[in-house]
Amino acid sequence: MKNVVLLGSTGSIGTSTVKVAEDLPGQIRLIALAAGGNAELLLEQTRKHQPGIISINDPAKAKDLQAKLGNSVKVLCGNEGLLQLATLPEADIVLIAIVGTAGLQPALAAIRAGKDIAVASKEILVMAGEIVMNEARKHGVRVLAVDSEHSAIFQCLDGKPTSSVRQLLLTASGGPFRDKSLWPKEKFAEITVERALKHPSWVMGRKITIDSATLFNKGLEMIEARWLFDIEMARVGVVVHPQSIVHSMVEFVDGSLLAQLSTPDMCLPIQYALTYPERAASDRVQTNFPKLGTLTFEEPDVDRFPAIQLARRAGEIGGTLPAVLNAANEVAVEAFVNRKINFPQITETVRRVMDAHVIVAQPTLEQILAADAWARVAAAK
Ligand code: MG
After folding, report:
1. 226: which strand partners?
2. What are the b/e assignments for 280-302, b being 16+ CB within 10 Å?
3. Distance 350 CA to ligand 1 centre (A)
4. Mean pLDDT, the chain, integer
5. Which of 89, 110, 279, 339 has the largest count of CB atoms under 10 Å?
């Protein structure tokens, strides 16, 4: 039985994690849940799973929840609540699925308390991958990937050192604007928010869906892979695979490739992270090859999707640049969703903020957070 703390229980990854816990009642126990703002769903999850402690961002909502739940559950709020949940003595693993950068401090707190962490919030590794991985090594804890691509690579690597790897190959669906004949570059300015929110193969949160349309999601994942697997950017490749069946691959030095495949379902990488190193029996995911038919692969179109190159540059240079890319992108996506800028301006904003940034090499956490704050102001401008 694993005692799991779930930070971000009401979002897309959070609700899938709850499903996994329901699939494996004898193996996974949700001992603490934290939500951003969805008090109704948090209440429902708490009544069903009976965690001893929960947290919600807003103090007023916390008070209201405490009144509804009575004394059997302790209700906390804000960042303080997240930190307390992340360091619970009885926790075996902390799954962090909070949108944006709010997961960084709880992730570090969990590591320092000797907890394994499962990371769904890729921003944590993009911003502060070196610090997080160094802390994890120091405290002898695991950083497990929840992202489907990184879970795939982790499964294919199976403990092999990076010296045996020629390259990691992240697969990308290519997003809703992959087809160049339907969406030539000239038409990108006409892309509406509604159109960008329709992803061909995954149902996900709003931010990540826009990131999948610009390919910034893949860019962030390249940097995430660089830190998670301790490999330089030059050996992190991307191949477009619209069917999203091959979740990623590892090419070894002898030319052999291992890939991890299944029909797309986030419950699978979540379950693997929570049950690792075991594999738990579950009927949820079924893959029927004859039904799938053809799997195709193509080169990413970096001319229409410059996010890939911007991320490669950020990952190669490192320092505070990945945090700047991430923060500028968050602000730009928000502006696009609020119809203040058009689709190509998301990438253009990130490029300009990156160009204007004075990079700090080997930054401290404070310098990373300062670069993040600077980039948000610069991007908004
Ligand atoms: Mg992914």
Report:
1. none
2. eeeeeeeeeeeeeeeeeeeebbe
3. 20
4. 96
5. 110
Q: State the CATH class of domain 318-381.
A: mainly alpha
- Residue 206 to residue 361: CA distance in whole angstroms: 32
* 250 CA distance to ligand 1 middle (Å): 16
Element (H, E) at 250: strand 246-252
In 3D space, the residue among 81, 59, 73, 67 whose CA is nearest the CA of residue 30 turns out to be: 73
Percent of the chain with pLDDT over 70: 98
pLDDT (tens digit per residue) in 123-145: 999 999 999 999 999 999 999 99
Cα 49 from Cα 25, distance rounded (Å): 10
**Pick from 317, 298, 328, 331: which is nearest to 362 by CA?**
317
Distance, CA 147 to ligand 1 centroid (Å)?
5
Q: How confident is the model at residue 204 (pLDDT cuts 50, 70, 90)?
A: low
Q: Ligand 1 mean position to 324 CA, how many Å?
A: 20
Measured in Å, residue 13 CA sits from the centre of ligand 1 at: 11
Amino acid at 192: T
Using CA atoms in the order 287, 290, 291, 293, what is the torsion angle rounded to 10 degrees?
A: 110
Collect residues with CB below 5 Å from ion ligand 1: 147-149
Structure tokens at 352: 């300009």
Q: How many residues does the chain have?
A: 381
Residues 6+ apart with CB under 8 A from 111: 117, 132, 135, 136, 139, 141, 143
- The pLDDT score that the predictor gives to residue 37 is 93
Q: How far is the CA of 65 from the centre of ligand 1 (A)?
A: 33
Q: What is the pLDDT of residue 131?
A: 96
| Residues of each domain in the chain carrying CATH 1.10.1740.10 | 318-381
**Distance between Cα 120 and ligand 1 center (Å):** 9
pLDDT greater than 80 at residue 200? no
CATH 3.40.50.720 occupies which residues in the chain? 2-145
- The upper half-sphere exposure of residue 101, i.e. CA atoms within 13 Å in the direction of its Cβ, equals 22
**Backbone phi, then psi, for 74, in 5-degree steps?**
-90, 130
pTM of the complete model: 0.94
The CATH architecture to which 2-145 belongs is: 3-Layer(aba) Sandwich (3.40)
